[in-house]
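Supplementary Text 2. Reproducibility record for the structural model of the 434-residue chain.

All settings were left at their defaults, and a single model was retained for analysis rather than an ensemble. We include the record here because the model underlies the residue-level annotations in Supplementary Table 4.
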Amino acid sequence: MNALTVSTIMLLIVFVTLFIGFPIALGMAVGSVVAMMLILPFEQAAIVSAQRMFTGINSFSLLAIPFFVLAGNIMSNGGIAGRLIDCARLVASRLPGYLSQTNIVANMLFACVSGSGMAATAAMGSILAPLEEKEGYDKNFSAAVNAASGPAGMLIPPSNIMIIFAMTAGGVSIAALFVGGYIPGIIWGLGCMVVAGFQAKKRGYTSRETFTLWQAVTIIWRAVPSLFLIVVVIGGILGGMFTPTEGSAIAVAYSLLLSIIYRSIKLKDMPKILFDSVKTTAVVQFLVCISAIMSFVMARTRLPMTIANAMLGVTDNFIVILLLINLLMLIIGLFLDPTPAVLILTPIFLPIAMRLGMHPIHFGIMLVFNKSISTITPPFGAILFTACRVGNVKIEGILGPLWPYYIMLVFLLLFIIFIPGLSLALPRALGLIV
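Retained model, structure tokens:
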């Protein structure tokens, strides 16, 4: 059986199992193992599969993921979210629809300390949704704002999905990816604020909130310890004081210490926090294990090279190929969560992009931005469903006010694609890349 047929069978099994209701990790496992047995004898296929699974997760960098997940869960339950929301209210107090703008700023701030778009959406939405309803905001509008701004946590470091990309791409600096995500993440948030402002004016949500100087100083003072985590973790990584993995462990210790000082987390809360963190980490690590088998099959069957030659055979126009790649990634993102999508798509499309002269950091930021959009698109958008749950709305109700955000975010994606400096300027300025 030729290599192309084997690769086709593997991908076909993955998507068929997905459509009939298999968990994505199990579908990837079935497709990868079947393909492995088609290219190697049974005993050799079993041994190589086990070796690849072990090798896939035998990475010091991957240890950062469980620590960042745990830190995010501690922050969600440890009183840090409320202080960040107060700080966001201060920043957005004079903007139209200030509570919706507060939601966007708060999601961005929480992203800076947790690295999780879903955690930000859940934490900020659960606190702000009742306040917005009390002010007369439409529940669907509020949930749409929360959903649209939540994925900023995937771009603004620390970001778990960037760690996954760096591991999959091989030899890509996590620190450079983290720094490269700041400008695109801020652009994402500003784009959402523009759309929310227009919608708020149209709906008549023009109420403002005023603060005295003393109130402003108090709010900032209360938020400083939480925001200082950014300086500690990112500053320590960039300063060479510790690695991203060591920084993630420091994030756990720092967030736990703050929660204890704030007296907002109890010893009895820790088992649930730990269990939730273990569940999330287990899913990610299993996907990484399976993707290692899939990557081996792709390399053995030369699937990335075949796809690259096919695309370059149609056109060698840089713009057309990048648009085609992003269109395919957006379509695939309708059916895959970001983690499996990055694990599957990186070995396929990164070689094509690099052959066209694209920097791997630029490609990684583009991919994460693209996959961030997928998290708020039906039918499987995880952040979309999280926003619906915490906002107590139905998905068909949220899609109406959400569509202008889709247009804005796709427009901003084009900026990320064709203006490399947005992703590369900061890493270059800090000497992380040449």
